[in-house]
Amino acid sequence: MKTLVRILIVAAVLLLIGAMAAFYTIYNSDSLQQDVLEEKTFNEPIDEMEITVENSRIEFLPSNDDTARIVVVGNDDNFALKTDVSGGRLVIEVEDTNWFFLFDFNQSYSLQVYVPANGLASLSADSDDGRIQANDIGATELSFQADNGRISLEAVESEMVDVETDNGRIELTNMAADMTLHSSNGRIIFTDVSGELQAKTNNGRIELNAETLDFPVDLETDNGRIEIYTQNEPENARIEAHVDNGSTDVFGRDSRDVSFGSGDVLIRLDSDNGSIFVE
Question: What pLDDT score was predicted for residue 78?
């Protein structure tokens, strides 16, 4: 009897793991060739966008002109698309209408948003379950939030970026802006960025790749390493590294407070459990 119970428990655990893996793959992997399910073009001037989706990937792409366009692609039409334009503000909502989406791993759809070539004053997106990706677009203020899903931005022109995910990696590449990032569970990666950076993750590594550290940086992780890779030592910065459990290596020095030049630019690094490495 005990053996049978153990077998049933193991089988249930394996089934749960398989279901979670399939669910993650659907909402975070790259889309295959999919059908166009619905499409809308907005000819009126759009300065602001607000997008909310339940169970869908969001992909932001540059428009060829100054018009905004949205396309829903996939192989499942169990969704309701709602849009509203008022005073230059476009509101988009995609609701999942299939109550059994958790058990239907063949369904999939994603929202493609084509941002006007002249850019936006503000852009916000909120996804319950699904990846958010943006490439080669412009928005003065940008705010992305996901409960479960990776968030990645590349070559996005912005002045202020605010990104948050409960479960998922955050990646920012080739950008210059003031950035505030938070991930409860997931790695944070900066590549070829500049601006005032603030990033915190409860569980995950933080990695920064930059030409040099000539801008303010504040990185904090509860559980994970902090790694910074540069081509040149900073000329006018002060690096404060704090570790509760782990080692520090700042350009070959084991000191937790290292200054370069007058030390006017503050680089603050804090890890409760994990080493800090800067080179």
Answer: 82
215 & 273 share domain: yes
In a domain, 127, yes or no: yes
Say yes or no: 202 and 111 in one domain: no
126 and 186 belong to one structural domain? no
| Of 32, 80, 37, 83, residue with least CA distance to 55 | 80
C-alpha distances (whole Å) from 241 to each of 107, 202, 217, 245, 278 are 47, 17, 11, 12, 10
- Tens-place pLDDT, residues 246-279: 999 999 988 889 999 999 999 999 999 999 999 9
Using DSSP's 3-state secondary structure scheme, residue 267 falls into strand
Q: Are 113 and 156 in contact (CB under 8 A)?
A: no
pLDDT of the residue at 97: 81
Strand duo 197-203 + 178-185: pairing = parallel
Query: Based on the domain organization, do 115 and 176 belong to the same domain?
Result: no
Other Cβ atoms less than 10 A from the Cβ of 40: the count is: 13
- 226: amino acid identity, one letter: I
| pTM for this entry | 0.84
Residues written for the chain: 279
State the residue for tokens 């590594």: 205
Query: What mean pLDDT comes out for the span 87-111?
Result: 75
Predicted pLDDT of residue 13? 57
Give the full edge-to-edge strand order of the sheet including 120-129.
79-86, 89-96, 48-55, 120-129, 139-148, 160-167, 178-185, 197-203, 217-223, 265-273, 237-245, 257-260
% residues pLDDT > 90 (the chain): 76
Mark whether 114 and 4 lie in a shared domain: yes
How many folded domains does the chain comprise? 2
Instruction: Give the domain range for residue 221.
Output: 169-279
Residue 190 lies in a domain: yes
